[in-house]
Automatic annotation (TrEMBL), chain A:
The chain crosses the membrane at residues 35-58, 70-88, 100-124. Na(+) is not transported, but it plays an essential structural role and its presence is essential for fluoride channel function. NCBIfam families: crcB. The keyword Cell membrane applies. HAMAP family: FluC. It comes from Agromyces soli. Belongs to the fluoride channel Fluc/FEX (TC 1.A.43) family. Na(+) binds at residues 78, 81. It is found in: Cell membrane. Keywords: Cell membrane, Ion channel, Ion transport, Membrane, Metal-binding, Sodium, Transmembrane, Transmembrane helix, Transport. InterPro entries: FluC. It catalyses: fluoride(in) = fluoride(out). This is Fluoride-specific ion channel FluC.
UniProtKB/TrEMBL annotation, chain B:
This is Fluoride-specific ion channel FluC. Na(+) binds at residues 74, 77. It is a multi-pass membrane protein. Its main location: membrane.
Length: 125, 139
């Protein structure tokens, strides 16, 4: 792997920051409500997984450079999606005795996330 | 607006920290993605610890929660990298590694969040004295 240029590193950070702001705005727009899944977080995690799959597929046939793969996958998708909020919200659902909602949050996120990443990859490669 | 600015700055920091882990512990396509696992476990524990403790105090400002929770820890951890790694591991035919990675990520991640919440709430419940009646030795 060649050394990363400061410009690429800066772009990765800005892309991650942009992803984080989009995630924050969506999590405010679709907040955690009793009886509902944490909607905003589910949306960003599935969309981010799909975009990551597409970019990795495109990079495989050299339609996207290694620098852009890093900016989009590590930067934007990494910033857009989150593991910490997902796991803490799941435990808080469990803690509140809502174990079915907690299990649903785990399985829906994993199944949709994997399906989105896999479909994106297969369509783009 | 202040909250959004805090998330943006936190997002820069969180992404930068994750990039450091990625560059420090690189892995080949067929190998176990240890760096993402480490990042996610540390981030889930830290967010649980804050959500169980500091976040429950009314005096904690909203911009701090947004900047550190959604910004730093939210962008430090990643679900898309987990999913992308699973797809790449499957492509490489490393089915066992993929299954192990998925199970360990989910179970250890939830355990880290639970441990963080539990420890955070123990610290959050500890009351500070309202007035200091002696010369300060109790602190």
């Amino acid at each position: 792997m060649t050394a990363l240029s400061p410009l690429v590193i800066a772009t990765v950070l800005v892309a991650g920051s942009l992803g984080a702001v989009i995630r924050y705005l969506l999590s405010r727009r679709f907040p955690v409500r009793p009886g509902h899944l944490p909607g905003g977080i589910l949306i960003v995690n599935v969309v981010g997984s799909a975009v990551a799959g597409v970019v990795i597929g495109l990079a495989e046939r050299a339609a996207v450079s290694a620098d852009w793969r890093l900016i989009l996958v590590t930067g934007f998708c990494g910033g857009l999606t989150t593991f910490s909020t997902w796991s803490v919200e799941t435990i808080e659902l469990l803690d509140g005795g809502r174990w079915r909602a907690a299990l649903l949050n785990v399985f829906v996120t994993l199944v949709l996330g994997f399906a989105a990443a896999g479909a994106g990859y297969l369509l783009a490669r | 607006m202040r909250n959004i600015l805090a998330v943006a700055v936190g997002g820069l920091l969180g992404t930068g920290l994750r990039l450091v882990f990625d560059l420090a512990f690189p892995h080949a396509d067929h190998e176990f993605p240890l760096e993402t696992l480490l990042v996610n476990l540390v981030g889930a524990f830290a967010l649980g610890w804050l959500a169980g403790g500091l976040w429950r105090r009314p005096s904690t400002p909203a911009w701090l929660k947004a900047g550190v929770g959604s910004g730093v820890l939210g962008s430090f951890t990643t679900l898309s990298a987990v999913m992308a790694s699973l797809v790449v591991l499957e492509r490489e035919g490393a089915h066992l590694t993929a299954a192990l990675y998925l199970v360990v990520s989910v179970l250890a991640g939830l355990a880290a969040a639970a441990a963080g919440l539990w420890l955070g709430s123990r610290i959050g419940r500890r009351r500070m004295p309202d007035t200091i009646t002696d010369s300060g030795e109790t602190l």
